[in-house]
Amino acid sequence: MHRAFYIVISLAVVSGCESLLDVDFQYTPSEIVVIAPFTEDIPWQVTLQKTSSIHDPTPKPDIIEDAIVKIQGDDGSSLELSHWGGGFFTSPEAFPHVGVTYTLTVEVEGYERIEAVDRIPDPVVVNDVRIFDPIDTNTGRRFEIEIQDDGDVDNYYELAITNSNLHGTTFKVTNSELEDQMRSFAIQDPLLPDITQPEINRALIRDSPFNGDTFVISFTEQYPRYSLEPTVYIRTVSRAHYEYYRSQIIQENSNNLPFAEPARVQSNISNGQGVFAGYHRHTHGAITYQSILNRLVGNYTATRYEGYDDDQGFPTDYLGRGASISLTLNSDYSVVGQMHFPPIDGDSSTDQAELVSLNGGYSVQGYDSFYGYYILTFYHSSDTILRDLQFIFRKDFAGGDEYILLSRTRESTSAPQGGDGRVVRTLILLEKDE
């Protein structure tokens, strides 16, 4: 029996204009970007990159492999994370704990010492979760989550839904008390009408309208999902987590809109960018984090590796030219594998292909800021098409429970000095042996 990952990657190459305009952009030095959300059932994981300058020929983040990454708790705990490849630092046997305030420090040669402080908030008190069937075939289900808010502290919540096909679903929060907060998740275009109940894949909520009270959060699915069992995720998140991911959503919603106000992503990283933030997850349903991890662990081999060039109009079969990919995802978040690049000269012999190591690590996070899915990211030191790309995954409808569909969530864009603009898409199918 096989399960499969479909990895669909679109790489856009943009070129050319009718005339040239000289613009003197001020040089901006690179900064360290730290991404480190943490919770009690995932070992410590920190990823490090450097921002790129607009002056770089192909601007993209650079990974950081030589760094000292330490985490200290106010309970006296202390550890130094190990680098597993691709800027991925971890300690698979060490886990955060609720009630402990942690300080992250990062030292990279040539940069100021980076520091951030945060903790995992107390668990949310969920009194009840109620799910109501749709009233007709054109509407989705209605959900109610009754929580007891702690009035002694400012609380922040995150809400999302997934279905038994591992596909996130969009929904609308319908509480009138939360309209002002939900408005910020709408597309930020002043030419559009005011939207107080936007379609979203996850909601970030602060408790100011119901501080210290029992409160029922009401929301409805946008599309009917009769045959799919829902899983509801309710998180308590730190203020740093709330501000970072909320501002990220606002920025993405305003991208490429000429009349939208520019949005800056908030960060709690001193002398850097990114986020170091704790959260606590409450799951109502069958799709737990551990069940996702259990399904991912295993051995994989590429059975398709194709490139689609818009200029050519037909795919290139890289496996037929000698390419190959094989890897193993382990339960400790390590990856062992290798990749053969096809020979540049067109020779189809495998022994002339370049052998590249895929050894490193991977992470599985709750949600992308734009899509409501679990996110898988590979990290390794070799410069490959798989590295540092974020993927969403879900079941393949055609294969039922036999398959997992894995797709890229973001496109990479580069702008060379010359050449015709073109789009190249790559499809990689990895089959899992069981």
User: Gap between N and C termini, in Å?
Assistant: 6 Å
General shape: globular
The stretches of 5 or more residues where confidence is low (pLDDT under 50) are 5-19, 346-351, 397-423
Q: Report the total helices.
A: 3
Q: What proportion strand?
A: 35-45%
Task: Tell me the total number of β-strands.
Answer: 29
Mean pLDDT score: 78
Structural class: mainly beta
* Secondary structure: helix percent: under 10%
C-alpha Rg (nearest Å): 23 Å
What's the number of domains? Answer: 3
Summarize the structure in short.
With 434 residues, the protein is mostly beta strands.
Please tell me about this protein's structure.
The protein is mainly beta and 434 residues long. The protein has three domains: 87 residues, Immunoglobulin-like, CATH 2.60.40; 164 residues, no CATH class; 134 residues, Lipocalin, CATH 2.40.128. It is 7% helix and 43% strand. The longest helix is centred in the middle third of the chain and has 16 residues. The radius of gyration is 23 Å and the shape is globular. It starts with a strand and ends with a strand. About 11% of the residues have low confidence.
Keywords:
Immunoglobulin-like, globular, twelve-stranded mixed beta sheet, Lipocalin, 3 domains, 3 helices, mainly beta, 434 residues
Please write out the topology.
Elements: E1 2-13, E2 32-38, E3 44-50, E4 62-63, E5 68-73, E6 78-80, E7 82-85, E8 88-91, E9 101-107, E10 114-119, E11 125-132, E12 142-148, E13 156-163, E14 171-173, H1 179-183, E15 202-206, E16 214-221, E17 230-237, H2 239-254, E18 273-284, H3 289-296, E19 298-309, E20 315-317, E21 324-329, E22 334-341, E23 354-357, E24 360-365, E25 375-380, E26 390-395, E27 404-408, E28 412-414, E29 422-433
Parallel strand pairs: 1-28, 2-18
Antiparallel strand pairs: 1-29, 2-3, 3-4, 3-8, 5-6, 5-9, 7-8, 9-10, 11-12, 12-16, 13-15, 13-17, 14-16, 17-18, 19-20, 19-21, 19-29, 21-22, 22-23, 22-24, 24-25, 25-26, 26-27
